[in-house]
Design goal:
Elements (H helix, E strand, L loop, with lengths): L8 H23 L7 H32 L6 H30 L8 H75 L1 H20 L5 E3 H19 L17 E3 L2 H11 L9
Antiparallel strand pairs: 1-2
Helix pairs in contact: 1-2, 1-4, 2-3, 3-4, 4-5, 5-6, 6-7
């Protein structure tokens, strides 16, 4: 129904579940034990109360949603609760009294207004609106809290992915350019070494392409990649580069960021002096 489009599922269910109890309480105030003796109370008064209750509830929904849209953040909770409470006390609760005035004005089923009816009616109205206010606000806060957690997690993943992509974009072109220079020299000087170098280079770039969509890799796969990468470095720098890897096999299945070992090796080579006498 169009009427319920702006109401959340919780708001709608809270009305449908609470309205029978509200109708029973108000009819008991209006007619006392007649609700068990006069079938007209059920045929006439209950439908009237449902219509009036629906109007009051939907007004409450529209106001509640407008306040949430104006002050959506968790930090604005005090202001949101204050404005909702203000309207609940000054508007929503007194609105229940209109029901008694309507019944008295039209003399519905012989009803005549009494002072104690107003007191009990105010109590019912306040209790109902307090339950609605508390329930809706608590559920709203829980939903916003989940949204904030999800947004933070997404931003964190995006930040990490961006950092990782930047690192890979810096590594791949620079590394490839140097390898091509080395390969070009080897083709003329030593075709056999050039063929071996090209074979290791293809292994390295197959690994890079395979792991381009994944941010994690096993230590075993990273070490295989590093082995090929080291062979390329040794071909380029000769005896000036020496590596020794000592890693316990029980850690082979552990996960780590892809290319993280390659960056460590590259930085070690980049920031050290390479020569045959000073390694």
């Amino acid at each position: 129904m169009t009427l319920f489009k702006r109401a959340t599922r919780v708001q709608l269910y809270s009305f449908l579940l609470s309205m029978p109890l509200i109708g029973l309480a108000l009819n008991h105030i209006l007619y006392g034990h007649r609700i068990f003796q006069d079938y007209r109370v059920w045929l006439v008064s209950f439908p009237i109360l449902w219509v009036l209750g629906m109007v009051t509830w939907y007004s409450h929904v529209l106001y509640d949603n407008s306040i949430q849209q104006k002050y959506p953040n968790i930090e604005q909770g005090r202001k949101r609760i204050f404005l909702k409470s203000l309207v609940m006390i000054l508007v929503m609760t007194p609105a229940v009294l209109i029901i008694f005035l309507i019944y008295d004005w039209f003399g519905i089923l012989g009803y005549s207004l009494r002072a104690d009816h107003l007191k009990y009616g105010m109590l019912v109205g306040f209790s109902v609106n307090l339950v609605f206010l508390t329930l809706w606000e608590v559920l709203y806060l829980m939903e916003k809290y989940k949204e904030n957690l999800a947004e933070r997690e997404i931003l964190k993943q995006m930040s990490l992915q961006q950092e990782f992509d930047v690192l890979k974009s810096q590594v791949n072109p620079h590394f490839l350019f140097n390898c091509f220079n080395t390969l070009s020299s080897l083709i003329a000087e030593d075709p056999q070494r050039a063929d071996s170098f090209l074979n290791e280079l293809s292994k390295v770039y197959r690994y890079l392409l395979r792991n381009n969509e994944s941010s994690l890799s096993t230590l075993e796969n990273e070490l295989k990649f590093i082995d090929s990468y080291i062979k390329l470095l040794k071909t380029r720098h000769g005896d000036a580069v020496q590596f020794q890897l000592e890693i316990d096999k029980r850690y082979d299945h552990y996960l780590l960021p892809s290319l993280s070992l390659q960056l460590l090796v590259e930085n070690a080579v980049k920031h050290n002096v390479l020569s045959k006498t000073n390694r």
